[in-house]
Design brief:
The chain has 142 residues and is an alpha+beta fold. It contains four helices and six strands.
Length: 142
C-alpha cells in the first residue's frame, strides 16, 4: 500500500511539472520582426542588441540588414523544434529555404539557410547553437 502512495505522489508531482512547462511555453508573447512584420517569431525569442557576434561567425552576411535574436529558457533547450518553428514562421510569411549549410566550429553548430521570398528576393537565416545557447539572425539583402 505504501508503494502505491509513493507512486501516486510521484505521478502527481511529475504531471504537475509537465503542466507548468506547457504554461511557460504558451505564456510568453512572440516577437514580431521589424524587417518584415509578417514574420511572427517563436515564443521565447528576445532581440539581441548587436549583430556583430554573429557577423564574426558569418562574414558573408555583411551584405544583409540583420536582426539578431536569442532563445531563452525552455525554447533554447529544444533546439531542433525551435529552429523548425522559426522556419515555419518564415514559410508562412513567404520565405522558402533554397539551400542549407551546416558546420561545427569549436563546439558551435553554425547553420546558414539561404531563403527567397515570393518575388525571388534573397534573405538569410543564420543559427548558432552551443550547449543550451541558441542565437539566430534574419536578414534581407541591403
Amino acid at each position: 500500500m505504501a508503494q502505491w502512495k509513493v507512486a501516486m505522489l510521484f505521478l502527481a508531482l511529475w504531471g504537475g511539472g509537465l503542466a507548468q512547462t506547457l504554461v511557460e511555453v504558451t505564456a510568453v508573447a512572440a516577437v514580431a520582426s521589424s524587417l518584415d512584420p509578417a514574420i511572427r517569431l517563436p515564443q521565447g525569442s528576445y532581440k539581441a542588441r548587436s549583430p556583430e557576434p554573429i557577423l564574426a561567425r558569418f562574414p558573408e552576411a555583411r551584405g544583409y540588414a540583420l536582426e539578431v535574436y536569442a532563445a531563452k529558457g525552455l525554447a533554447s533547450r529544444l533546439h531542433a523544434a525551435f529552429v523548425q518553428q522559426v522556419l515555419t514562421a518564415f514559410a508562412a510569411a513567404g520565405y522558402f529555404v533554397e539551400a542549407q549549410e551546416e558546420k561545427v566550429v569549436d563546439g558551435e553548430v553554425r547553420t546558414k539557410y539561404l531563403l527567397k521570398d515570393g518575388l525571388g528576393r534573397p534573405a538569410l537565416l543564420l543559427v548558432v547553437r552551443k550547449g543550451e545557447e541558441l542565437v539566430y539572425a534574419f536578414g534581407k539583402r541591403k
